[in-house]
TrEMBL record:
Translocase keyword on record: yes
GO biological process: ATP synthesis coupled electron transport
Protein's UniProt name: NADH-quinone oxidoreductase subunit N
Gene name of this polypeptide: nuoN
A GO cellular-component term linked to this record: endomembrane system
Keywords, in A-Z order: Cell membrane, Membrane, NAD, Quinone, Translocase, Transmembrane, Transmembrane helix, Transport, Ubiquinone
Organism (species): Candidatus Ichthyocystis hellenicum
UniProt-annotated location(s): Cell membrane; Endomembrane system; Membrane
Annotated NCBIfam families: NDH_I_N
Similarity comment text for this entry: Belongs to the complex I subunit 2 family.
Sequence intervals crossing the membrane: 12-34, 46-65, 112-130, 165-186, 206-228, 249-270, 276-298, 305-326, 338-363, 384-410, 422-443, 464-485
Superkingdom: Bacteria
Length: 497
């Protein structure tokens, strides 16, 4: 691996983010001068967003060489891991945006939604490339502020405004906690570069208790962003109350960014201090999995069920972090296979939850949105294709083979076993099995409950093809998951951490 500092590479290294930023600014200017043509402006904004995100994805896949580059005074880094994370974010965006477009309907000023969605993507890309605590915070806030806005995009809905206020207040507290932690770290280390933090800590005498507090504060902030127990209080209210067009971004793309945010803190910044944060991970992860599954069982509202399901799923993200070190490995040796299982799990969860959210928000029963699980009663008898595809989605989230969700959990558990965390692996399987109940309950309602003769279901027509493709990915990528896993592993090992 070669580590280079290159001014010539600076522009090319930031070209995808720069393209997205310029497109965002152009859309904002167009929104001011062409407000009299809302339909044309909305279509133009939508296709510009799709085009620039696809352009960025192509750059991430084909453009850059393998060596690790630091640029812009080492504020940003580019390597194969960064490009893999960026490509993942772009893929989620390309799925989320068409779903959101279908959900915007006749909302006023809907052309304003598209530059906000690009800001969410831009923030995720900045976090992925960040090599300085301030650039990491910048990416976090770009994403967060855009999310606060899209959550309340339907301003005439009281529940959307309530959800946005809750999300904003708690999110601001989490951001403040992160800044508080970084100020401690800077005070002790005297350095704000992420890649230098572990080197400085390893070579200097430092205030151990103060720096440990710093790491735990930043870790707590990342737990809030992921919706980890006990920082999950916002999740159900925001999922249930948010503007529906924001949900594909809130449930998938935001999780990708938040997971990258956590990795930057724990592994890129403070892997040397894993003796501080590593021992607490299994307890938090297992409680998160069990709590999310148990509370989801009690939910009748399908969005709240998916909210607590996401809490449970994020417990596996922490378990993938925990698998980085073996039981006897408090010798600072990271097994990079954890990164592969982590990235595969995030991809699997994001693509699965996008399909689930699309089903719950785009399906109409007698031309009315689905609210409760009981609204799906007997859908199989009236629309068997829709019910069968939805069944595949929920089975993937439950982790049933051979679907993609099974392999995601399998790779995480396999890494736990390989790292000698057998008890944690067994407990995670048992706690995860609890969650199968509420997914099977939805399937039971769809296939076996009674249906009224005049009931009918349909999906918003503009999203039919995309949703079917999304569902088929869960089957076919799941059936051929090992080549994808091998590609991710190659990207990880080509540069390391």
């Amino acid at each position: 691996m070669h580590i280079l500092e290159s001014s010539a590479f600076s522009f090319w290294g930031i070209l995808p983010e720069f393209s997205i930023l310029v497109t965002d600014l152009v859309l904002l200017v167009l929104a001011v001068f062409f407000r009299r043509f809302p339909n044309a402006l909305s279509k133009l904004s939508y296709y510009m967003c799709l085009s620039v995100s696809f352009f960025a994805l192509c750059l991430f896949v084909y453009r850059f060489p393998d060596p690790r580059y630091y640029f812009w005074d080492s504020f940003y880094v580019n390597d194969s891991i960064v490009r893999t994370c960026d490509a993942l974010a772009c893929i989620m965006y390309l799925f989320a945006l068409p779903y959101s477009r279908s959900l915007l309907g006749e909302l006023p000023n809907k052309s304003d939604f598209y530059p906000l969605s690009l800001m969410i993507l831009l923030g995720c890309l900045v976090m992925s490339s960040a090599n300085h605590w301030l650039s990491l915070y910048l990416g976090l806030e770009i994403t967060s502020i855009a999310l606060y806005t899209v959550v309340t995009f339907d301003r005439d809905r009281p529940t959307a405004n309530e959800a946005a206020v809750k999300y904003f207040i708690l999110g601001a507290v989490a951001s403040a906690i992160f800044l508080f932690g970084t100020s401690y770290a800077y005070g002790v280390i005297g350095n704000s570069y992420i890649h230098n933090s572990h080197i400085v800590v390893d070579s200097l005498f430092f205030n151990y208790s103060l720096l440990s507090s710093s790491v735990l504060l930043m870790f707590a902030s990342s737990c809030f962003k992921l919706g980890i127990f006990p920082f999950h209080a916002w999740v159900s209210d925001v999922y249930a109350g948010a503007t529906e067009a924001s949900l594909p971004f809130l449930t998938a793309l935001a999780k990708v960014g938040s997971a990258i945010f956590a990795v930057k803190i724990l592994f890129h910044g403070f892997s040397v201090l894993h003796v501080v944060w590593h021992p607490v991970l299994p307890a938090i992860a297992l409680i998160t999995i069990l709590f999310g599954n148990v509370v989801a069982i009690a939910q009748k509202n399908i969005k709240k069920m998916l909210a607590f399901s996401s809490v449970s799923q994020m417990g596996f993200v922490l378990l993938s972090f925990f698998s980085a070190y073996a039981t006897s490995a408090y010798d600072r040796n990271i097994n990079l296979n954890f990164y592969s299982s982590f990235l595969f799990f995030i991809f699997s969860y994001s693509i699965s939850v996008l399909a689930a959210i699309a089903f719950c928000t785009l399906v109409r029963k007698n031309d009315h949105p689905i609210v409760n699980i009981s609204d799906l009663s007997g859908i199989f008898y009236k629309n068997p294709l829709l019910a069968s595809m939805a069944c595949m989605v929920f089975l993937s989230l439950a982790g049933i083979p051979p679907l993609l969700g099974f392999w995601a959990k399998f790779f995480v558990i396999n890494r736990l076993v390989a790292a000698d965390h057998l008890l944690i692996a067994v407990m995670s399987v048992l706690f995860s099995a609890v969650g199968i109940f509420y997914y099977l309950r939805v399937i039971k309602v769809m296939f076996f409950d009674d249906v009224q003769p005049d009931d009918s279901w349909h999906m918003v027509s503009s999203s039919n093809c995309l949703w079917i493709i999304n569902c088929l990915i869960l089957l076919f990528v799941g059936a051929f998951s090992h080549p994808l896993m091998n590609s991710i592993t190659d990207a990880v090992y080509s540069t390391g951490l």
